[in-house]
UniProtKB/TrEMBL annotation:
Entry function: Catalyzes the interconversion of methylthioribose-1-phosphate (MTR-1-P) into methylthioribulose-1-phosphate (MTRu-1-P). Also catalyzes the interconversion of 5-deoxyribose 1-phosphate and 5-deoxyribulose 1-phosphate. Part of a bifunctional DHAP-shunt salvage pathway for SAM by-products.
Residues of the site described as Transition state stabilizer: 162
Metabolic or biological pathway: Amino-acid biosynthesis; L-methionine biosynthesis via salvage pathway; L-methionine from S-methyl-5-thio-alpha-D-ribose 1-phosphate: step 1/6
UniProt catalytic activity: 5-deoxy-alpha-D-ribose 1-phosphate = 5-deoxy-D-ribulose 1-phosphate; 5-(methylsulfanyl)-alpha-D-ribose 1-phosphate = 5-(methylsulfanyl)-D-ribulose 1-phosphate
Name by which UniProt lists this protein: Methylthioribose-1-phosphate isomerase
One biological process term in Gene Ontology: L-methionine salvage from methylthioadenosine
Pfam families, sorted: IF-2B
Source species: Candidatus Aphodousia faecigallinarum
Highest taxon, organism lineage: Bacteria
Active site location: 241
Membership in a protein family: Belongs to the EIF-2B alpha/beta/delta subunits family. MtnA subfamily.
Annotated substrate binding sites: 53-55, 90, 201, 251-252
First-level EC class: isomerase
EC number(s) stated in the UniProt entry for this protein: 5.3.1.23
Amino acid sequence: MKVNGIPTRTIWSVDHGQAIGIIDQTKLPYEFKKEVLRDWTAVKDAIATMKVRGAPLIGIAAAWAMVLAIRDNAKDDFIHQVRSELIATRPTAVNLQWAVDHMVKRVISLPERERLPVAYKEAEAMTQANVLENRAIGTHGAKIIAELYAKKREPVNILTHCNAGWLATVDYGTALSAVYIAFEQGIPLHVWVDETRPREQGLLTAWELSGVGIPHTVIADNAGGHLIQHREVDAVIVGADRITAIGDVANKIGTYLKALAAKDMEVPFYVAAPSSTIDWSVQDGKHGIEIENRSGDELRFIRGIDKKGKVSEVQIIQAQTNVENPAFDVTPARLVTGIITERGVCAPEFLTRLFPEGGRLQTRG
């Protein structure tokens, strides 16, 4: 995608893998700032503090963290230590574990002197593959939007929750990839953007959509059900942090409520995600997916622009007041109309038709 007319990705190699560049997403949408991370612990901290965020992106960032770790120490024990520490940063998003395990598997059988060049090459390949996968997801998703437009012959209203755009991936995004490609194809559309508290990731979505001129409206999280009820939403499209073998979906907290409203009003509810988001080892998402609980300060404090035009943070909940901050919820497969992947769209129960290799893993597990 482009920022101020300049093609930009969320992560890139610096000095042939001696460091990586990122967009500090904690500064958005008020400030666009790039940062260079020169060691694996800096990448780990960036993932934990959500300087890089979005399930696909943190997976790619973790792959590059492995490159930087192997550059410093290519011994087996150290590689496994780094693997464990990276996975612990964000336990719900399976892409992170998938990426780290893929890197470890790729290098661990090699002599130590050969590990770094192979790791670098693999991380580069994974980065580019993410872009191609997201473009394919968008192509499949755009067909859904086109079909809705063919029936309606008026702008298609899409509701999305959290940020599943290019900022959450290397480029294009997942849920928003469908929106971008449909827009490129000239399909009239409009996006309802949940503000998505805490952390207000919906503001990132609005920032993205503004950058390419896609009509959109930011709404309070609790307004989504009302809009669905009054037929102002033609489809809900969200991303995912983990999808189980039977199609249960973990995504940003509040997703489940949108799915319930959509089901009640017979509005299609789609989940867009690459195959690396599918966890074939888990069946029941409600009981099998670890839900990350984040700091209560994400609820206690909120950031914005003050009357003087400066970015400021204010406290809205007293320190002595208890808060609970689960970062994700699980939407059961029965509420999901379809899952949009790089290989196509299917109902949750037919995931193994698109990914027979996943079904074999499931059987062996």
